[in-house]
Design brief:
Blueprint lengths: L14 E6 L3 E7 L6 E8 L4 H15 L3 E6 L9 H16 L4 E5 L3 H11 L4 H23 L9
Parallel strand pairs: 1-4, 4-5
Antiparallel strand pairs: 1-2, 2-3
Length: 156
């Protein structure tokens, strides 16, 4: 019987968060204790998916991340639509190459939340465009960090 990757023990340490867009990938990382997510960078998509995945593997190595969290754009009713299916297919590919557990998290409204926080910070539309994907990744990652079991709940 195959274990669902979502059921893997929650690792302790720095976690990488990804917002896998069609043109750009927002990247966020947590602090070393895995408690606070911060926007990191935006990676431009290329048609060469393996090259993009190698870049993500490089980020995992550079940050010494113990896990990756990918946002999945579920439909408003919580179902898996075409966009979510595309991301889940890519998550399966990432799990095969990244070398650390890859978890998923509902990303509904993460970009809207990111735009809102950037607007509140006084950034205009042009300035927001360059960072919104990384901020959305931090929203996704923070949701996951906040909802995962506490360290006391993790089996040793």
């Amino acid at each position: 019987m195959r274990t669902d990757p979502q059921d893997l023990p929650v690792p302790v340490g720095r976690v990488l968060g990804l917002d896998l867009g069609e043109r750009r990938i927002g990247v966020a990382s947590s602090d070393a204790d895995g408690r606070l997510a911060v926007p990191s960078e935006v990676v431009e998509r290329t048609p060469d998916r393996p090259a993009v995945h190698r870049r993500i593997c490089g980020l995992v190595e550079d940050l010494e991340a113990v896990a990756v969290v990918v946002g999945v754009p579920l439909s408003l009713d919580g179902s898996v639509g075409p966009a979510a299916r595309r991301i889940l297919d890519e998550v399966a590919d990432l799990r095969a190459v990244v070398g650390v557990p890859v978890f998923t998290c509902d990303e509904r409204f993460s970009t809207t939340e990111a735009h809102s926080s950037l607007r509140e910070a006084g950034l205009d539309g042009r300035a927001r465009r360059g960072v919104v994907d990384a901020v959305a990744a931090s929203v996704i990652l923070q949701r996951w960090l906040d909802r995962r079991p506490s360290r006391e709940d993790v089996p040793s």
